[in-house]
Amino acid sequence: MPDWGLLDPLSSPNSAATDDAAILTALVQTESALTLAWLDTGLAPDWVSTIDLDRVHLDRDAIAAGTRSGGNPVIPLVSQLRTHVDAVREGAGDWVHRGATSQDILDTALMLVASRALSISAVHLRATASDLAALAEKHRRTPMVGRTLTQHAAPITFGAKAATWLDGALAAEAALTAATTPVQLAGAVGTGGSFADLTGDPAAGARLRAAFAARLGLADAGRSWQAERSPVVSVASALALVIGALGRIATDVLVLARTEVGEVSEGSGGRSSAMPQKQNPTTAVLIRSAALQAPGLLATVHSGMLVEDERPSGAWHAEWLALRSLLRLAIEAAEATSTLVKSLVVDTERMSVNLDASFGLAWSEHAQSLLTRELGRAAASAIVSRAVAVTSNELSFGAALAAELDGRVIDLSPETIYPATDAVIDAALARFEGTTK
Amino acid sequence: MPDWGLLDPLSSPNSAATDDAAILTALVQTESALTLAWLDTGLAPDWVSTIDLDRVHLDRDAIAAGTRSGGNPVIPLVSQLRTHVDAVREGAGDWVHRGATSQDILDTALMLVASRALSISAVHLRATASDLAALAEKHRRTPMVGRTLTQHAAPITFGAKAATWLDGALAAEAALTAATTPVQLAGAVGTGGSFADLTGDPAAGARLRAAFAARLGLADAGRSWQAERSPVVSVASALALVIGALGRIATDVLVLARTEVGEVSEGSGGRSSAMPQKQNPTTAVLIRSAALQAPGLLATVHSGMLVEDERPSGAWHAEWLALRSLLRLAIEAAEATSTLVKSLVVDTERMSVNLDASFGLAWSEHAQSLLTRELGRAAASAIVSRAVAVTSNELSFGAALAAELDGRVIDLSPETIYPATDAVIDAALARFEGTTK
Amino acid sequence: MPDWGLLDPLSSPNSAATDDAAILTALVQTESALTLAWLDTGLAPDWVSTIDLDRVHLDRDAIAAGTRSGGNPVIPLVSQLRTHVDAVREGAGDWVHRGATSQDILDTALMLVASRALSISAVHLRATASDLAALAEKHRRTPMVGRTLTQHAAPITFGAKAATWLDGALAAEAALTAATTPVQLAGAVGTGGSFADLTGDPAAGARLRAAFAARLGLADAGRSWQAERSPVVSVASALALVIGALGRIATDVLVLARTEVGEVSEGSGGRSSAMPQKQNPTTAVLIRSAALQAPGLLATVHSGMLVEDERPSGAWHAEWLALRSLLRLAIEAAEATSTLVKSLVVDTERMSVNLDASFGLAWSEHAQSLLTRELGRAAASAIVSRAVAVTSNELSFGAALAAELDGRVIDLSPETIYPATDAVIDAALARFEGTTK
Amino acid sequence: MPDWGLLDPLSSPNSAATDDAAILTALVQTESALTLAWLDTGLAPDWVSTIDLDRVHLDRDAIAAGTRSGGNPVIPLVSQLRTHVDAVREGAGDWVHRGATSQDILDTALMLVASRALSISAVHLRATASDLAALAEKHRRTPMVGRTLTQHAAPITFGAKAATWLDGALAAEAALTAATTPVQLAGAVGTGGSFADLTGDPAAGARLRAAFAARLGLADAGRSWQAERSPVVSVASALALVIGALGRIATDVLVLARTEVGEVSEGSGGRSSAMPQKQNPTTAVLIRSAALQAPGLLATVHSGMLVEDERPSGAWHAEWLALRSLLRLAIEAAEATSTLVKSLVVDTERMSVNLDASFGLAWSEHAQSLLTRELGRAAASAIVSRAVAVTSNELSFGAALAAELDGRVIDLSPETIYPATDAVIDAALARFEGTTK
Question: Looking at the complex, does the CB of residue C233 fall below 8 Å from at least one CB of chain D?
Fold first, then answer.
């Protein structure tokens, strides 16, 4: 039992869909689907329906040993499957892996695992999006300071920030939705020649591929992608985008959770082994850590595109673990972000205090825009700059500005920004609503 | 003139669409489009139409210096633009960069450059796809050996191989087509508050964004993506997929062009500085080299997703050069692949010789499939294995097989594989035809 | 038992040194070493020597669950260890993890695992280097064609090529040797304050760290690297260099093993699930696939350098799996390369045939150099170019050259290159000998 | 003038050492050094000393065009150099590029540029280290809160933090110092055969290489690394480590510079195009952005290790731009960090205020360690936990603790941590002093 998650804090129970057991199951299901595809297309005798691969007891050690010598796990797996079914009925093994090459099975099984991982991630993303929509609505009128390049910039609302988190979750969902997971089935050199030879029908390959896809609930790309890996790269790109979009939410949370900022906290943070008082934003930390791992993994999958021949000498093999890691991280990050968002504690008072901490300076751009409308940019800029220059803990920016304006008071209250932030929130909520239909 | 392509052999003239001059032009066009958007929405007085930013003579050194101190090139650019137009008409500068933040302009200008680069790449991809379709058709009946893991595997046709290259080109095209390049326009903290303040209309931000997009021919995502970078990542992912898909074609060509293989050559290869006899497949080498650079660049763009606050402290800045490199490599690789394919010299005789070089062993899987249909897998496998075992340069596999079959001759001629390879080619050509409508 | 190597063909038995069991063992050994360091420095009472952490039966499920909530595996591990030893003797738990923070233990345990992995890799590298030295010596006079940019270039010997492989193995060894694996021990915020507080001695932290390092056989860097990750990055860089250097040997082997080239083969290659005649260079394929995975993993470890605060919010956690993967791949690649080299079958006749296949054109640079010495570059180049131009399968380059030289015959035999290739081999062997002392 | 730094804010004037002009100069200097090496070894006639390559006026457009067709810039460069010197004295061109292949020249020229870039970076690193040493000394008694996982953890001093920054700068320096930049010189296929042929002396290649290295002030590795790229990877690894170590300092500064934290600021920050009040930590942002770019670039250089043949089909070409970018970023980051550190404004009062902001809770680990020494862990933990639980803005942790201890007051003043932090600082300063000798 080499790796059970000791170094992957988010893995349990999230790894169940992507672990070796899941992949082995998918490999068997893929072989089973191929056998059934022969039946579904009328190309196998009826008795083939009695072949039951799912019940075969597999010798995992023999598979491991065979994986090393053959270079992939399908070769020893097929050998075991055939032996077992032949023992039940002689010749049954002929209908296992019939016409396929090991890449057909492994590529398809990984797409099957990917398809399931995408679905699981999508469920968590939907919950996250829904909770973010509620958060945006709830905090529609919760003013806070917007920050750029680490500095106080201008007021926003927490609802508007949550709306941009929602944008990220919806972008992640859209990427998942756009990802297709096709079967691969084309025999040794990608031409489907074995299916033609085994049936005498040149169209058999295409028919079997369609039936195979239908059995597995996967797409039929109408072609072999044995040596043209854009389908794998597309899935990996979608996964990395999902992880990154969630990592951004976590990264933003981590800044807001800093002790000095204190605007949000995790409902139940992690403890320290050394410091009794600490409450760590552990979930956000782990989501961010997932997002830091994704770019390198995606780069590896991309390296796999450089395929020579009808099957390459290493590029294909290099995809497997990186793709699996991306699938796992996507599930983990999606589940954890769902937890993070659902349990996020928002300190609206602290948001208000922070916004006011710089003596109103966060309102200077707002004031300048208002005055520009009236006086032109040069005059507005001069007035605001003078007011900024004299603002201090004894003289608020609002008061300094009023002094510059001969006593005229510019409204620097949060109410003045709500029309704009409401528009941001409304647009995001409308997009969210559009995806729920 | 720091970098003019000395270390980027494919750059000239391909860099014209992505070099600093192109980006500076795009920045000015972006500012110009914003000014016009104010007019288009009826939010600016008519005289604003006389502001002409395109004619402003820019002081590049001052921009370079200002880029360092401000952290981006927009700040010094705006300063110059305003000074110039104010000199023509006082107050005109008020309508330059009005309500925008520098990120609005730089993000949009890079999307404008990206949009153009995508178009240029698409033209080359179309030509490539068209030439590959012709190649697939022309070599429909050109047998060659299919190879897996560097070894002779089973016969294919060069037409079938070209069809999978066409698949790659079409996948690349589809990725380009799916990529959207939206404008960014939302002011300092992404809420569009400045536009509301400058107009008194909370909907002004959305209206200006739509007009801005229309002027530039870019998309309007209906939102700000200042801190949610999935639009940038999506474009970068598409570019990396394009480069990788083309890199795969080049990688495959390079194997076929090896001296010992000799099945293809470049129409006009490169020379050596040391070896008088050499003809190097330089174009394919350079395309492959582009593809080796893409994964790392894509990883960098992905790192940029981890945005804190309303503008992050480095993640945004880290995107620029990596995105530009991907745009440049995509154009370069697309143009070079178009050249490579158009001028590819195919040695059909050598393909035939290579196929026959292993005494017919490349036909063993074909024979086994045919015999399996008839005799079952066990018998077929035993017969073929025995024939394989005795095949040598004095006894062809076909003859050895006939001996095993009591003199019965299995047809091991190329004609037997055409039904399957034709199906592959026809399907690819049909997909190509589907994209030409 | 989530991941046992199904997607990592080289993993078994190579993963034993890096799997979760090995890491859990290292964590316990690290805690044990810390307890002993308290004794070794005279800072603990003698009875502390009776604490036996190695015998503690650990509840793996509880560790997994605690890893999720606390963000790392040390917190739940320490809790179990303390409970167990407290049950044996009250207060014994006080001497477990005393003064440490979880990062001290995890960082050190990973360095312990790294140290062992480096040693294992080094053993395989030594065997590889030794076999390569023998190969270089054995094939000192085995002529073959040197190739550049996929094309025949000029003659070399296989011994000279093996010497450059040896260079790579020695460079990999040197990188391993230069890698240092220091302990980390500095308490919650990296200052060692807890050790001072627990002992009243400000030097206690440094003394304990030295004793801790001595117990584990690791280095003492004289400082904390809790937030300054260059030690981790240095180890990762060395591992990636090792994997890459071995990947280059495998990549070179794969070209030479191509059916059309046929100059080397693996002693026992892998079989195909579809093609009866195939012998795949599986080991080389898998080594190359390891090398394709390393760059992305290294990039992830490098991302971990961007540490804020005294412990960062994700960057540290992102290192773990990537570092472990690099350790595992290094062992796997080193073991596999040792096998590859030891069992490599060299077909010297095929090398000779290939060298001669281009009618002597591979000698053109040699001839040109010889003639340049005599006649100057212009004349030599003209003569050789004319000879190259008329060379064909009916007129060898040597004969064409003789015709250009009025019958004078230039020696184009392999003997002419041996002085140069012997110098290459001798220099490499001398370096190898230098490392065996 | 395609790229002059518009998207690289730190580039000017830092790109002068790495731009195309610098590389072209280095290429010419490399060719010149080779010609002189022939003289230095007594293998050329004396008149060869009159050949002056530095004065040759180069046609840049012809070089660009030739780079595309030949795949690298050396081929067209050599052609121009030879034409020019031949025009001065017939036959002089024979002594230009004599025996070399284009890779010899480009590899060596890039190492020459690297050597210079490493030196420039080292100067900035030395200044940075010196300023950091002074900062550590100056703030030896400036208490501040240490933070882990974004939360207040335990007290440190700013001097101790600066000492860990110094550790990073010293680690970066050590990496630079360990990096070697060897010449490459071995002719077409890496055996030095041309030099033997041109001289009749098999040792000529080694002698010329040594003289070549001496002329350029580069190392002689005693071998060719044309196809064994560990020297390039080693340099790239060192550069990435340097950039990362500096990026960590910037990342830490950025957190401390946050408006809510406010413990440091840049002497002269950047302005905003939209917000009049802002002072951005622009320099730190740009250093961090450099560090975000390095991992992907390093991954690309690592990909270049997978070399087949005596020169590979793309892997070599893919190194160039990535290596140059790393060199440039290293200089930029080193120069900028030197500026950042030199002008860093430290707000010691704010540090003190932040430390006290959590009512003394940052002292809880300190208190627990002190009490553990006395009472054992269980009792200490119970007491401290109770005190933590009742701490509030009305009851400090110190007071709560005293209440738990029946009025006994534990010293929670900064003085109590100085022994430990002084030890950290002293050790770092001693290491720094050790490097100045």
Answer: yes
